[in-house]
Amino acid sequence: MSNGDAPGRRTGLFIGRYFGIAFYLDASWFLIAGFVTYELAFVMFPNEVPGHSPAVYLLLGVTAALLFFLSILLHELGHSLVSQRCGIRVPRITLLFIGGLAEISREPDDAKTELKIALGGPVVSVILSAAFYVLHLGSTALHWIPIAHVCGWLAWTNLALAIFNMFPGYPLDGGRVLRALIWAKTGRLRRATYITSRIGIGFSWFLIVAGVAMLVKQYWGGLSFLLIGFFLKSAAESGYANAIQREILGGVRVRDLMTANPATIPDSLPLNLAVEDYFLSGHHVAYPVCAPDGEFRGLLRLDFLKEVPKEKWPYVSAGDVVAEKSAETLRIGVNESAARAMRLLLAPELSRLAVIENDRLVGIVTRHDILHFIEIHTELED
Question: SS3 for 9-33, per residue?
Fold first, then answer.
């Protein structure tokens, strides 16, 4: 499963960097890894290959589980290598409780690229399934029965992974394939995303209902269905929202949405006066700080003020505070795309950006400005 502009930055345990891609293990992965290992080592293999010691079953379970999760990583790597070959950077791959997630830096520009990236993962899973099946046949012929069962299980799970991901509902790989085909046929990405995301939401509700029914019957595997269903539902909904933003914001620049000539705080103003004259009277959570000649020095945010003890406010200037913060993450060029501004503003702690031209402040653009612009255009088109 691949993902476009993921909101926020996911954390996790860093496990290495390969092909220029950072690999991480999400905290939820350890839970599902433990569950899979337990099921294999203490339930499945003792039933299918009786007569061995618990240590052997544990070794088989751990080996099968690790190879299964390696298969998921290779599935996501299939997406990622194709993506990078198409010129779309992949900063990281994360293993989650629902499987793998390749975070691409941006959505594809055309249907052909979308199709290539979507098929990259399932092709890898099918190849792995075939390889493990061959190993299963070879191990069976050599009477290595425990190894044959491990390879047989891996062949089946990789095939099941490919089949599940090829369901034609966004954001699954099959949904991206269908979206690419509709996009190529109609030339309308938004329409293609709408159709495939509705299918994806329907499929997610099926998983949720199935999961609840399984839990009612005290089959705890239903919890996985439930979690995957809610995850897919959220991803399908956000995928369509991203498509709307991409279409409406296409060709729109920051200068078209910004508020020009905003109130600014002089860099020499003490914090106590900044609070009284700006934050308490203006009711904004951040103000740009500028030098007397209009040069942008930084964005003074409410959370920055909280880092300075109140008794020191009269002796600390606004310029002193913003000088300790990186202004680069709080600014954007006047001619940059509104879509990029929106991606930056998706960070939970960031609600506004200073708009800069020739190092001078010319405006402010907020998350609300862009969302209001999108809302108006969406209402007018309906």
Answer: CCCCEEEEEECCEEEEECHHHHHHH
Q: What is the pLDDT of residues 217-242, one digit of tens each?
A: 888 778 888 888 898 898 888 888 87
Q: Is 147 within 8 Å of 139 (Cβ atoms)?
A: yes
Task: Output the six-digit token pair for 296.
Answer: 């942008």
Both tokens of residue 274? 């900044």
The mean of the pLDDT values for the chain is: 87
Distances (CA, A) of 363 to 333, 360, 370: 10, 9, 14
Question: Which tens digit of pLDDT belongs to each residue from 293-323?
Answer: 888 888 888 888 888 999 999 999 998 988 8
CA distance 41 to 64: 9
pLDDT computed for residue 8 by the predictor:
42
Q: 186 and 295 share a domain? A: no
How does residue 6 score in pLDDT terms, banded at 50, 70 and 90?
very low
Q: Are strands 259-260 and 360-366 parallel, antiparallel or unpaired?
A: antiparallel
**Contact status, residue 117 vs residue 15, Cβ threshold 8 Å:** no
pLDDT the model gives residue 9 = 46
Reported residue count of the chain is 382
How do strand 21-25 and strand 265-266 relate by DSSP bridges?
unpaired
* Domain membership of residue 153 as a residue range: 2-249
How many independent structural domains does the chain possess? 2
Is the model's pTM score more than 0.90? Answer: no
CATH code at 335? Answer: 3.10.580.10
- Count CB-CB contacts under 10 A for residue 48: 14
Tell me which residue of 213, 336, 318 sits closest to 273, measured CA to CA.
Answer: 318
Question: Listing from the earlier edge strand, what are the strands of the sheet with 259-260?
Answer: 259-260, 360-366, 352-357, 331-333
